[in-house]
């Protein structure tokens, strides 16, 4: 009996240890989401990529762009000149909002805004051909709501937690 308990005790310990190890950091989750999106966009699965990875105005705009490209007989693989992620940053008071600065082969940066939304996954809500990481301290709730991101700042969340 002792051997059986010991065996199961070790197994439980190993399972709990592996569940802690397999948890990715928010930065790794953002990186994995963004890389999967870019891979789908580059391989021609653009419509599916937009459906799975995008939300808000960005989803609407990109869907319309892909539809126009399809009507004109153009290949619908966007971001074919994407090379790698240059940098990932989180907004100072919004730990659920990330900026991904993407490298393109023409050396023009594109910033993507991702939000960890109520689907409990990172989604792309906005893109701009500039380095928004330089402006991250100036991005506020008004900008976020304009992009379709409705969230509460970390400091407001702390205030709410102290009230309740």
Automatic annotation (TrEMBL):
It comes from the Bacteria. This is DUF4878 domain-containing protein. It comes from Prevotella heparinolytica. The lineage of its organism: Bacteria, Pseudomonadati, Bacteroidota, Bacteroidia, Bacteroidales.
């Amino acid at each position: 009996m002792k051997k059986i308990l010991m065996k199961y005790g070790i197994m439980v310990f190993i399972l709990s240890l592996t569940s802690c190890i397999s948890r990715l950091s928010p930065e790794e989750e953002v990186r994995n989401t963004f890389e999967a999106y870019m891979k789908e966009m580059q391989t021609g699965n653009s419509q599916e990529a937009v459906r799975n990875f995008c939300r808000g105005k960005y989803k609407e705009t990109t869907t319309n762009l892909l539809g126009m490209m399809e009507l004109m007989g153009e290949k619908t693989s966007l971001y074919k000149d994407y090379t790698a992620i240059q940098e990932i940053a989180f907004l100072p008071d919004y730990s659920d909002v990330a900026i991904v600065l993407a490298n393109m082969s023409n050396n023009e940066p594109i910033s993507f805004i991702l939000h960890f939304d109520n689907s409990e996954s990172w989604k792309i809500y906005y893109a701009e051909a500039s380095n928004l990481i330089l402006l991250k301290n100036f991005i506020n709730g008004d900008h976020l709501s304009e992009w379709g991101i409705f969230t509460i700042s970390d400091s407001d969340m702390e205030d709410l937690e102290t009230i309740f």
